[in-house]
Design brief:
The protein is of the alpha/beta class and 253 residues long. It has a single domain, classed as 2-enoyl-CoA Hydratase, Chain A, domain 1 (Alpha-Beta Complex), CATH 3.90.226.10. The strands form 2 sheets. Strands 1-2-3-4-6-9 form a 6-stranded mixed β-sheet, with helices on both faces. The chain has a 3-stranded mixed β-sheet with strand order 5-7-8. The longest helix has 18 residues. It is globular.
Length: 253
């Protein structure tokens, strides 16, 4: 099981549990998260918390899955992989339920962008964020090129994506990427559940409508951005730069 499910009152807590991989997002993990949110929408749950086990949110996309599709003779394999993650981020974005992220440790790559798709983000003081994609020779995915500029503006988004710095919780807060910084992982989880419970106890239809209005309040659509992302990532994964970018990671393992 890659995702643990726990109900705290009317709050559904979904915990990524692949601690040996720092909770890297495999296709199975993405499907489990998406399924967990969809079931919450239909069974009376009032809000969802996304978090990670073992002191980390997630190191991003699972390298084995990514490299597997890059080497696959089927030209459609990279795009199919991206669609799996797109279905997850669209589910978070479009869900009528408030989705709150509780981030500790690393939130890199696609996991960073998954957190950005959530309605509120709480992080611990040890949290570290990085748009690591160009270090690997690939393009930002999981909706990052759509989500990040909405939060920090075009120039800051380009800085975070083109230079790929690792930023700490304090800078993430200053940039508006997180709502609050808490002392440690347990406190962060508790705070996220507390706020999610507050939302679950609120006017659910109005909260869902407010979320929808805010998310659609600017030009362009996430779906269109994801379409472009899929084509771009499928091409990038086939390049020598991607192979070189992942080589140090594979050697360290």
């Amino acid at each position: 099981m890659t995702v643990l499910v726990e109900d705290v009152g009317c709050v559904r807590v979904l915990t990524i549990d692949r601690q040996d991989r720092r909770n890297a997002l495999s296709p199975a993990t993405a499907d489990a998260l998406r399924g967990g949110i969809e079931r919450a929408e239909s069974d009376g749950t009032g809000a969802v918390v996304l978090t990670g086990a073992g002191g980390h949110f997630s190191a991003g996309g699972d390298a084995d899955a990514i490299l597997g599709v890059a080497a696959d003779a089927d030209d459609g394999a990279p795009t199919a992989l991206m669609r799996t993650f797109h279905r997850l981020v669209e589910t978070v974005w479009n869900s009528p339920l408030p989705v709150v992220a509780a981030v500790s440790g690393v939130a890199f790559g696609g996991a960073f962008n998954l957190a950005l798709a959530c309605d509120l983000v709480f992080c611990s003081a040890d949290a570290r964020f990085c748009q690591v994609f160009l270090r690997r020779g690939v393009v930002p995915d999981v909706g990052g090129a759509y989500l990040l500029p909405r939060l920090v503006g075009m120039q800051r988004a380009k800085e975070l994506m083109l230079l790929a710095p690792e930023i700490d919780a304090a800078r993430a807060y200053r940039l508006g990427l997180v709502n609050e910084v808490l002392p440690d992982a347990p406190t962060t989880r508790s705070r996220a559940v507390e706020i999610a419970a507050l939302l679950a106890d609120g006017p659910r239809s109005a909260i869902a409508a407010t979320k929808r209005m805010v998310n659609t309040g600017t030009a362009g659509s996430l779906h269109d951005a994801l379409q472009l992302e899929a084509v771009s990532q499928a091409a990038a994964l086939r390049t020598e730069a991607a192979r070189d970018g992942f080589a140090p990671f594979l050697e360290s393992r």
